[in-house]
Design a protein that fits this description.
With about 250 residues, the chain is of the alpha/beta class. The chain has a domain of about 170 residues: Rossmann fold (3-Layer(aba) Sandwich), CATH 3.40.50. The protein contains 9 helices and 7 strands; from the N terminus they run H-E-H-E-H-E-E-H-E-H-H-E-H-H-H-E. The mean pLDDT is about 90.
Length: about 250
């Protein structure tokens, strides 16, 4: 998935940041995407997560793979990162935008830390695009509320909302470079496979023993699939290039 997203974002097979460059994974979890990108393209990377456990474990994994000097996972607030302006050639975010309570601040921070001439590339869960004056139906709102309760998510937005948020930074963003896509059809088989695999006795018994948090997560997957089948839930990709200029630093 990471390579396919990079190919789409850079518009070329094997696309990615140049050798000797750097990247940041915003909402990185254990830093898997950052490690893959840094190892493949010979760049240095940072990952930011709110979880001290994820940061500690992510750095342990990097060390075990011989990437301790190339990839660092930090405890950071993605909405208030401590990096300097114009710091990274690639700002990457995979399935973290849906967790951000302030989408405008999230986009603003990604643009802020991206170098002139650099790229922001994100993939996130969204609700469907709305026509002007249109709102989500009660049924759609109810589905999203159930997912939010299971996953502790804030309010959702659409892929087109993200495009507009990036356009608001037209002083730095090359508006002609903005692209978006709906890759829901790529992800849908994953949800179906996970749910199907959980419907055997062994999986159900393990689920019941695992506690309420895991049960909520399993329920959320069912609601996610329902939302996809309704045409409500989308896996949205957005990429922008920043206007060229002198490079900044971390």
């Amino acid at each position: 998935m990471v390579d396919e997203l990079l190919n789409w974002g850079y518009g070329v097979e094997g696309g990615g940041p140049g050798v000797g460059g750097n990247m940041v994974d915003v909402g990185c979890g254990l830093g898997g995407s950052a490690r893959h990108i840094c190892e493949k393209f010979k760049v240095n990377g940072k990952g930011v997560t709110l979880s001290p456990y994820q940061a500690r474990r992510g750095n342990e994994i990097s060390e075990s793979k011989g990437l301790g000097g190339e990839v660092e996972v930090r405890v950071e607030d993605a909405l208030n990162m401590t990096f300097k302006d114009d710091a990274f050639d690639l700002v990457w975010s995979l399935e973290s935008g849906e967790h951000m309570p302030d989408k405008a601040r999230f986009v603003g921070e990604m643009v802020r830390v991206c170098k002139p001439g650099g790229k922001v590339l994100m993939a996130t869960w969204c609700h469907r695009d709305l026509e002007e004056g249109e709102s989500l139906s009660r049924r759609e709102e109810r589905c999203l509320r159930r997912i939010n309760r299971c996953y502790y998510l804030p309010e959702w937005c659409s892929g087109s909302d993200y495009v507009e948020l990036f356009k608001a930074h037209g002083d730095k963003v090359d508006l002609g470079s903005i692209r978006s896509a709906d890759w829901s059809y790529v992800i849908a088989p994953f949800w179906k496979a996970v749910i199907k695999s959980s419907l055997n006795f062994k999986s159900v018994w393990g689920l019941l023993k695992s506690g309420p948090r895991t049960i909520r997560g399993a329920a959320a997957m069912a609601y996610m699939l329902k939302g996809y089948n309704m045409g409500l839930i989308k896996f949205a990709l957005v990429t922008v290039d920043l206007k060229g200029g002198e490079e900044g630093g971390e």
